[in-house]
Amino acid sequence: MSSLHQLPHRQRRSVVTGIGVIAPNGVSTEAFWKATREGMSVLDLVTREGCENLPLKVAGEVRDFDPAVLIEERYLVQTDRFTHFAMAAANLALDDARLGRADYNDSPFAVGVVTAAGSGGGEFGQRELQHLWGQGSKHVGPYQSIAWFYAASTGQISIRGGFKGPCGVVASDEAGGLDALAHAAHTIQRGTDAIVVGAAEAPLAPYSVVCQLGYDDLSKVADPDRAYRPFTDAACGFVPAEGGAMLVVEEETSALDRGAPVRAVVAGHAATFTGAARWCESREGLVHAITGALEDARCAPEEIDVVFADAFGVPAADRAEALAIADALGRHAEVVPVTAPKTGTGRAYCGAPVLDAAAAVLAMEHGVVPPTPNVFEVSYDLDLVTGSARPAELRTALVLSRGLMGSNAALVLRKSSAESLS
Amino acid sequence: MTRRVAVTGVGIVAPGGVGVPAFWDLLSAGRTATRGITLFNPEGFRSRIAAECDFDPAGHGLTADQVAAQDRYIQFAMVAAEEAVRNAGLDTGAENRWRMGVSLGTAVGGTTRLEHDYVDVSHVGQLWDVDHRPAGRHLQRAFSPSSLASAVAEQVGARGPVQTVSTGCTSGLDAIGYAFHSIEEGRLDVCIAGASDSPISPITVACFDAIKATSANNDDPAHASRPFDAHRDGFVMGEGGAVLVLEELEHARARGATVHCEIRGYATFGNAYHMTGLTQEGLEMAEAINRALAHAKVDSSQIDYVNAHGSGTQQNDRHETAAVKKSLGEHAYHVPMSSIKSMVGHSLGAIGAIEIVACVLALAHQVVPPTANYETPDPECDLDYVPKTARELPLRSVLSVGSGFGGFQSAVVLTRQGGRAR
């Protein structure tokens, strides 16, 4: 890998060459895609230790995850569950991209790491708070300073892989997951060859759950099939989840030079802000984000073959999103399939839109739109794919995300062979 | 590349005084603001000293509701942002709000409030399965670091990309760096950028106690922060917030704004070495300095002042001295290099932004702030650290560097207006 390809800015296209998923519905990319395609819902009662008596009843937990299989012991002891997920996902993504040390040994500054983080190492932090307040300050361990903070996953992935390139962390709203992908693409435009990028979260430690109870829109419904049903009259809030995805995003010629599998192009992104929980205003914010992302991708609205919706799950937010898609895509909104597979897993905060981006790449590769589990009677004027997956030729996907603190973002992904019509 | 990035406004809440005049007064006089901790009872802790802000939020215009809802670190940012916008003479209502963004850094975000409420819900560290009922009603804002950027975006009416950046102790430099890229590359015209942290709480003090990173010079707090001195024994924790108005240069000129200086270059790399340890040679920091200089089109020999990370730990100051020698060569011995952490302590994620404000003021006043408390030279730190007394000097180009847990190494280059065009 050479460290700087001398191409003009715009020609340094970012492509996805690897995908690694640790999600409630699968602890590998293959398992995730199979469950996503089948529309399986894994929402279930919260079983994380200490959460039994809290008012949050349903969540998307990552189960059957053995971190020791994917991560060395020395990293395990000094990191929280959210970093276990991120490191495991990064390992899977790097294997998938067939990117190893031999590729960048001579140019370690050419590969960087970017993660988004919405809550940090809550379980580790709660344990050390308990040591401090229950036993005294001398009982706080040496790893608290590096396990709890938001930058832990980026730092550990960088160390484990030997990646000395630009390393960043957007500690963000859910939409920060898409912002991280954009950050990676911008960094590649400036001359970096590859970025390991994404987000994974572990917000189900008991104290973390208590913190989330303050969100008015958190679903406290106890029936897993009914707790998270966006775009329906029964919408009653969102269900939180663990997990996320890491991707390897590379400069295109650099990927082609080393014979890497080019999975998709990161074609365009834009982000806006319209205020925390002001869902009506998020309509205008999403329209600006979608329009901006389409312009950035030099993509016409008619080229969008599938929309991965934010699907927040309260009526005001769902209405705003449905209207925003109609505003931004015009008449094409009447025919474009829309999906929200996260209704089967819950919302893994910053990890959620990265999982959607991963699903979008897989959907384009397999030529099917995965369905929206648990959603049946759609109340808005959207062609929401429900029930079972729908075969379709997909060349361009639009991924939407909004955050609880007011961010909106849109990302355009294209099949690597897709050429712009406009 | 024709878009240039101007600094048109600065605002600050720092130990020793709120507001730019008080801050500059402290720095130019070489006074220290470190003292025994008063924000909580530090009995039993190894390090019992800090640089605290004497901060009265109501006196700075925050309403009772704002004070109740926002953590101390967000209050710092709001007060600093208000001063910066006023200093810039920016009529935010007249701006295209979709082209105005926010980029703010924090290392530990709402830790102080998270800890405060934790004590209640855990019955003082007795329960793992915490009791949610005593939780404060704004706890979710402390849980979500994006509440920092969100609060300031609401305050100034920004509708463009709004992000919180969290790369440990380089968060401030990186948040400003991301803003710089966003304006230079055309995504934004105006960005409210900076950082804030209020980490002086038992859990943060305990976690640095555990790794002996902080000074235990409890008997002489005013002289405890001794960067580059042979007898330095760790950093002194600080708190504070600093915000800048960054603006595309022609945009600033068109509205007749006073341009304080320009941000000309920024780069960041990971050391991929250790979460808290630093290499002997400082290669990665040197690389960040070299790339920032190259981006700025400023030769290393043209740097007139280096604003050091200078935390006052044995390894940091050696590492940084080596990195500056490696990147600036022989010129390193002729350029003044100082650490304001000797006076205002190390406010983790905030300090990078506080240091950038110090650089802006140094350029404006043509004065290099000193390294207070510097008495005994260390043979391994053999540069000109500007001991104790500020120095008047013609300054055109200055460099600010930072280093953080997670391996982050960042550098920013600023030039006085009227510097050579690109």
Automatic annotation (TrEMBL), chain A:
<dbReference type="InterPro" id="IPR000794">
    <property type="entry name" value="Beta-ketoacyl_synthase"/>
</dbReference>
<dbReference type="InterPro" id="IPR016039">
    <property type="entry name" value="Thiolase-like"/>
</dbReference>
<dbReference type="InterPro" id="IPR020841">
    <property type="entry name" value="PKS_Beta-ketoAc_synthase_dom"/>
</dbReference>
<keyword id="KW-0012">Acyltransferase</keyword>
<dbReference type="Pfam" id="PF00109">
    <property type="entry name" value="ketoacyl-synt"/>
</dbReference>
<dbReference type="GO" id="GO:0006633">
    <property type="term" value="P:fatty acid biosynthetic process"/>
</dbReference>
<dbReference type="Pfam" id="PF02801">
    <property type="entry name" value="Ketoacyl-synt_C"/>
</dbReference>
<dbReference type="InterPro" id="IPR014031">
    <property type="entry name" value="Ketoacyl_synth_C"/>
</dbReference>
<dbReference type="InterPro" id="IPR014030">
    <property type="entry name" value="Ketoacyl_synth_N"/>
</dbReference>
<dbReference type="GO" id="GO:0004315">
    <property type="term" value="F:3-oxoacyl-[acyl-carrier-protein] synthase activity"/>
</dbReference>
<comment type="similarity">
    <text>Belongs to the thiolase-like superfamily. Beta-ketoacyl-ACP synthases family.</text>
</comment>
<keyword id="KW-0808">Transferase</keyword>
<protein>
    <submittedName>
        <fullName>Polyketide beta-ketoacyl synthase</fullName>
    </submittedName>
</protein>
<feature type="domain" description="Ketosynthase family 3 (KS3)">
    <location>
        <begin position="11"/>
        <end position="415"/>
    </location>
</feature>
Automatic annotation (TrEMBL), chain B:
<feature type="domain" description="Ketosynthase family 3 (KS3)">
    <location>
        <begin position="2"/>
        <end position="416"/>
    </location>
</feature>
<dbReference type="InterPro" id="IPR000794">
    <property type="entry name" value="Beta-ketoacyl_synthase"/>
</dbReference>
<protein>
    <submittedName>
        <fullName>Beta-ACP synthase</fullName>
    </submittedName>
</protein>
<dbReference type="Pfam" id="PF02801">
    <property type="entry name" value="Ketoacyl-synt_C"/>
</dbReference>
<dbReference type="Pfam" id="PF00109">
    <property type="entry name" value="ketoacyl-synt"/>
</dbReference>
<comment type="similarity">
    <text>Belongs to the thiolase-like superfamily. Beta-ketoacyl-ACP synthases family.</text>
</comment>
<dbReference type="InterPro" id="IPR014030">
    <property type="entry name" value="Ketoacyl_synth_N"/>
</dbReference>
<dbReference type="GO" id="GO:0004315">
    <property type="term" value="F:3-oxoacyl-[acyl-carrier-protein] synthase activity"/>
</dbReference>
<dbReference type="InterPro" id="IPR014031">
    <property type="entry name" value="Ketoacyl_synth_C"/>
</dbReference>
<keyword id="KW-0012">Acyltransferase</keyword>
<dbReference type="InterPro" id="IPR016039">
    <property type="entry name" value="Thiolase-like"/>
</dbReference>
<dbReference type="GO" id="GO:0005829">
    <property type="term" value="C:cytosol"/>
</dbReference>
<dbReference type="InterPro" id="IPR020841">
    <property type="entry name" value="PKS_Beta-ketoAc_synthase_dom"/>
</dbReference>
<dbReference type="GO" id="GO:0030497">
    <property type="term" value="P:fatty acid elongation"/>
</dbReference>
<dbReference type="InterPro" id="IPR018201">
    <property type="entry name" value="Ketoacyl_synth_AS"/>
</dbReference>
<keyword id="KW-0808">Transferase</keyword>
